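Exercise 7b. Backbone tokens:
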């Protein structure tokens, strides 16, 4: 067998290694000078001009994602419940600036109608008033505001809780002078009716807020009403 082995192969394998038989010599591949890199294959298939109308296979449909709308925006904690149950307007937004607290701002970022503010004398009188005097003063406006804004069915239990806080029916209402409470929001009236809202009233307010839909952004003469 070794006698039939080519000399070149015997040199590679060496005298002590077993031969696996004759292996034909490898030839150097010949590469043409101009070898085309790609081959063009013509398939006689007529493709439609508009491939967007081709439906996907069953089970691979891509669900349509709705365009982001203002109703899908996430609002700050102070803006939720606008316009009747939100907190007071943010002073930064009201002045046309940018709120440094952003989404965590505890004040409302929606525009509010200009409210009537009490003068210094009336403000001090309200600060010194008792809860019974405040309830006697603001409770009639709360009922009137609820009826005017169509909130009575939703806030009926809240109104009953406020009435239950009237322990002294002989308390007289505070003379408000030129102050116009009806320019206040419903929630602002409720918060003004007592120095600090009791836990059961605060819980009822939070329950009402949790059932409200997201605020609706409207467009006015100065642009969108939401600035977050």
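Sequence design result:
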């Amino acid at each position: 067998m070794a006698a039939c082995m080519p000399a070149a192969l015997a040199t590679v394998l060496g005298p002590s290694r077993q031969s696996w038989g004759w292996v034909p010599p490898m030839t150097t591949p010949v590469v043409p000078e101009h070898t085309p890199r790609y081959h063009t294959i013509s398939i006689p298939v007529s493709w439609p001009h508009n491939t967007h109308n081709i439906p996907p296979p069953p089970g691979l449909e891509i669900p349509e994602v709705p365009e982001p709308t203002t109703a899908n925006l996430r609002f700050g904690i102070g803006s939720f419940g606008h316009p009747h149950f939100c907190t007071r307007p943010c002073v930064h937004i009201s002045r046309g600036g940018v709120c440094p607290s952003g989404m965590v701002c505890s004040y409302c970022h929606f525009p509010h109608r200009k409210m009537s503010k009490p003068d210094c004398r009336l403000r001090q009188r309200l600060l010194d008033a008792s809860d019974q005097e405040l309830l006697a003063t603001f409770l009639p406006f709360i009922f009137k505001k609820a009826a005017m804004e169509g909130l009575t069915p939703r806030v009926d239990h809240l109104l009953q809780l406020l009435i239950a806080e009237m322990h002294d029916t002989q308390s007289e209402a505070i003379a408000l002078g030129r102050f116009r409470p009806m320019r206040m929001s419903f929630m602002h009236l409720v918060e003004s009716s007592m120095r600090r809202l009791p836990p059961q009233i605060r819980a009822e307010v939070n329950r009402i807020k949790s059932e409200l839909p997201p605020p609706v952004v409207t467009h006015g003469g100065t642009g969108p009403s939401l600035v977050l």
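Instructor comment: The first strand starts at residue 219 and ends at 220. The radius of gyration is 41 Å.
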